[in-house]
Write a structure and sequence with these properties.
Elements (H helix, E strand, L loop, with lengths): L14 H15 L4 H21 L2 H31 L10 E3 L4 E8 L7 E9 L3 E8 L2 E8 L3 E14 L5 E15 L27 E9 L11 H7 L3 E7 L8 E4 L6 H12 L8 E4 L9 H10 L11 H7 L8 E5 L5 H12 L5 E6 L10 H13 L5 H10 L3 E6 L5 E2 L1 H10 L1
Parallel strand pairs: 1-7, 10-11, 10-12, 12-13, 13-14
Antiparallel strand pairs: 2-5, 3-6, 4-5, 6-7, 8-9, 14-15
Helix pairs in contact: 2-3, 5-6
Length: 436
Amino acid sequence: MARKRLAPDRPAAPWKSRARRALSTLADLFPLTPAGVLLAVVGAVVYFEFAEKEADFVLLGVGLTMMGLVALSLLAVLVNALALHLSLRHKPVGLPESLTVGVEHESAFRCYRFRWLAVSEVSFDWLEPAAVAVRLTPDGAHFREHVTPLERGRFLTVARRFTVQDVFGLARLRFPHRWATTLRIQPVPGRADLTLAIRRATDDGYSHPSGQPKGELVEMRRYAAGDPVRHILWKVFARSRKLMVREPERAIAPKPAMVGFFVAGANDEPSASTARLFLEEGLLGADFVFAAEGSTRPTSNVGEAIEQVIESQAFRSSGADSLAPLLRSVDRGRLDNLVVFAPSSDGAWVDKVVAAARRLPLPPTVVMTVDGQLERRPPRRLARLLFRRARAAGGLDEVPAVYDRLRGAGVELRILHRQTGAAIDQHGIEAWRSLG
């Protein structure tokens, strides 16, 4: 049964933005570039104002050459654009139903190169979804398309924008073509060693995946046939006349029911990867409850939870509005183990998590995953300036402020680095703060 979804908050675009889009559409459909218009005007002035009046055959040839070159470029672009548009009418979208963020996929879509008319060339990119990197490789008379999604989401339309232009840069025509299809882009799974960097709010840790789930010899039980003699507690036997042996504690304790919530926002793709890791690896326990931004009801199914994370991309402006309904729908006794997967950017979600922490039996654990470089303070001023720009591009510049607000409210914050799987401690936060 299909789940009902909350409508995302999308403010109306201002008139300036609408006007800019209208002008951009007109510019795409106008077949001449500024250079082509300039060359055509100069050629017309030379031909009609000087060549004819002065009967100068040299200027006559120059003017005709300029206008002829523009006309040839325009004709080649129009012919190729028309042929391309007709060829797309029955072409399939050429994509599978599911892609993964950051993973390049070669689609089955092929686009004509029109090598027979060497004056013009063809290229294309994506309009919807916009966060897709496209790489074209020649394959005979066609282009092969390689796509790399940059963010997750679920889309009902794929729109490619085709550009036909001449080699001189005088004429250009752009037009979109849409396919009605279902495209699912899922977050890439987080690194497996991220599990080593996480401790729950109850201070229970996870053992190494390749190690034995045993701890120190601190437990006791009755002696049984076959137990090693060296584990017998002789002092206990002397007092109670009962044979007791030491037993190793279990390093993996039974996991209580945990509640997970995914906050959608700017720079949330790394946290989406971590949320997928937690869900698929069972790090929230067998009897978990999970909800993502924009969902109307929590779920205990891994597949449904991942779908909620994917669809939360459309609710990035909500600011954790779905957190309060989740807390009301879950039994209060289960809220001792609340894990919030948060983006690395500041926003209204911080205040809502702080407000929720004040009402919970125990403060939640916020898991934040970041991208970018983790180097410490560069030694020189120029290097520090370059490092600051790279750090801002990865969304790390807002982390110290978020860290202060959450820790000041008693919220436990765990910061992970997606590329390396390393945990960022307070010293790393202070290093970022010193670069701000």
